Structures are given as structure tokens and as C-alpha cells.
Amino acid sequence: MAVTEEQVNQVLKTVFDPEIPVNIYELGLIYDVSINDSNEVLIKMTLTTPNCPAAASLPDEIRHKVSAIEGVQNVDVEIVWEPMWSPAMMSEAARLQLGL
């Protein structure tokens, strides 16, 4: 059974930045989700700041939750800094939730 990007994105919407009450997907922290033919998932993401206190916990939480999707064989989470995150990357829903 092939794992879909939509399945992965739905799981990512259940992961929240501990400092901001919005999920990481709506915050715009997820830059890319790719799934190969072996159902190995690569997620490229960023953090709100390089010194983000969630730098250690968020990738582990993502790996754990995405690994629970039926069919997923492996999950790799890569933290990238280009482009640098800014509030402009948030979805409209996130901006409304935060009153921006």
C-alpha cells in the first residue's frame, strides 16, 4: 500500500510547536515531504529560530507519529535553514488563530 503525501500532512497537522499554539504544518515549518517507492518518507523542515527549544523534540515526535502510518518503512527528518522561516510563511488559518 502506497503512503501518500496527504496522509503524512494530516499527521504533521497533529504536531505542535510547544511555544506557539499552532501546528507545524500551518506554521509553515514543513518545506517538503517526499515519499519513495519503498514508502520511505523524507521531511524537510525548519524551525522558527536556530535556538528553538523544540529543536531536539520536534523531529523525534514527527518521526514517531509519521512512522505510525500504515506502510511507512522509514522516516527521515532533515532540519534546513534556507529559506529562513518568517511569519509570512504561516497559513491564513495560523495567522487568524494567532490574531495576526
Q: What this model shows, in words?
A:
The termini are far apart. The chain is 26% helix and 18% strand. The model has no long low-confidence stretch (mean pLDDT 92). Strand 1 (30-35) and strand 2 form a beta hairpin. By secondary structure, it is of the alpha+beta class. It has one domain (5-84): GMP Synthetase, Chain A, domain 3 (2-Layer Sandwich), CATH 3.30.300. A three-stranded mixed sheet has the order 1-2-3, with helices on one face. It is globular.
Task: Give the secondary structure arrangement, pairings included.
Elements: H1 5-12, E1 30-35, E2 40-45, H2 57-67, E3 74-79, H3 92-98
Parallel strand pairs: 2-3
Antiparallel strand pairs: 1-2
Please state how the strands of the largest beta sheet are arranged side by side: 1-2-3
The helix count comes to: 3
How large is the share of residues in beta strands? 15-25%
The CATH C-level name is Alpha Beta
Gross geometry: globular
The radius of gyration is 13 Å
- Quick one: how many beta strands? 3
Strand and helix order? HEEHEH
Mean of all residue-level pLDDT scores: 92
Binned, the helix content reads 25-40%
Largest sheet: 3 strands, mixed
The fold-level CATH name is GMP Synthetase, Chain A, domain 3
Task: Provide the CATH architecture.
Answer: 2-Layer Sandwich
Task: Please tell me the total number of domains.
Answer: 1
Poorly predicted tracts of residues: none
What is the CATH superfamily? Answer: Fe-S cluster assembly (FSCA)
The assigned structural class equals alpha+beta
How far apart lie the N and C ends? 41 Å
